């Protein structure tokens, strides 16, 4: 049937164009014309129809596969199938030309198939990201690895198709090929191993706050890929770190702090050593009026009185013979009681106030507690409020915070000396 049809079409041509291969050439041209028309219909009509259907449906998975062009790429296989199978309907053409067209068409079909699988993997990744626990186990690196494998295999089969050789023919040189692959994809292979370890051991997740000073990274992880990990720093800049570097360098992950719901405050007040002393009776009575210290002072004075009565036996004329309240010790207790009553301090986490070794800049009084938030701005506000209060209240205990002399101090000294 097709021979008669082609024969009639050939008779319509001018006589000088009716050669031995006229029917074959005309048949080949018709096949390419039909394939081109189908391609045009797919591109102009069917793809638009798919897009309009997406606008009328609320199906999430359909929108995702359409966004990654999975059906669009799959449909482009149809024109290639028309060419590949249509050559059988064409009368015997030159064998080399037919073989060349078949090889090129097969290679294009393999390439389109690889692109379809690429879109399928991307769609699977996007669907996975819809899960609420997707950030706990990122799979982007595995998806990218799958794409690399698909394209490597596709390239291997495309070369085999164009060379008209069996794929097994090229396996004889697999050793040399592997050496080249190891050389070209060294960082990718290292990153693959690192990515598997990072995700399987749950070392990094998207959304984690990490600190990696050697790469200038201090912020949230926004993407974990096969080759790179992207970190958005607090100044909104982006740091890109090779994945395998996470196995070569140390880094700090603040996830534990974020999950605990409390962030540590550890700062010191430098107390001027010259202001550390015993409290007078008047000062003790005044401090006893504080609801934070009343119970402590009454209990401590009772304990001191019993001790002195037991061991001094009337020799209490000097302070060196007994025990007494100090302003620094009472201040330490005040800080603890203040933190226990603070609404933004975690009471279920470590809380302490301790003295560190005195230095040339005074006696460090370290305040250690956990703020009841992990939000940076709120944390800084809580920390500042606490130390605002402590700096202002320290003089009530006769204490001064150490500070290097300033120009104002020297002017006052000069004024006093006339």
**Shape estimate:** rod-shaped
Question: What letter string, H or E per element, gives the SSE order?
Answer: HHHHHHHHHEEEEHEHEHHHEEHH
Strand order of the largest sheet: 4-3-2-1-5
Number of strands: 8
Number of helices: 16
- The CA-CA distance between the termini, in Å, is 125 Å
Going by helix content, strand content and strand pairing, the class is alpha+beta
CA gyration radius, whole angstroms = 40 Å
> Portion of residues in helices?
55-70%
Which residue ranges are poorly predicted, with pLDDT under 50 across at least 5 consecutive positions?
A: none
Strand content: 5-15%
Question: How would a textbook summarize the main sheet?
Answer: 5 strands, antiparallel
Instruction: Let me know the average pLDDT.
Output: 82
Helix and strand topology:
Elements: H1 2-11, H2 22-56, H3 60-67, H4 70-75, H5 77-86, H6 95-129, H7 140-163, H8 174-184, H9 186-200, E1 209-212, E2 217-224, E3 228-233, E4 238-242, H10 245-248, E5 252-253, H11 255-260, E6 263-271, H12 281-287, H13 294-311, H14 327-341, E7 352-355, E8 363-371, H15 376-393, H16 407-416
Helix pairs in contact: 1-2, 2-5, 3-6, 5-6, 6-7
Textual characterization of the structure:
The protein has 418 residues and is α+β, with helices and mostly antiparallel strands. The protein is 56% helix and 11% strand. The protein has 16 helices and 8 strands. It has helices at 2-11, 22-56, 60-67, 70-75, 77-86, 95-129, 140-163, 174-184, 186-200, 245-248, 255-260, 281-287, 294-311, 327-341, 376-393, 407-416; strands at residues 209-212, 217-224, 228-233, 238-242, 252-253, 263-271, 352-355, 363-371. The strands form 2 sheets. The protein has a 5-stranded antiparallel β-sheet with strand order 4-3-2-1-5. A hairpin with a 7-residue loop joins strand 7 and strand 8 (363-371). Helix 2 (22-56) packs antiparallel against helix 5 (77-86), helix 5 runs antiparallel to helix 6 and helix 6 packs antiparallel against helix 7. The radius of gyration is 40 Å and the shape is rod-shaped. The N and C termini lie far apart (125 Å). The mean pLDDT is 82.
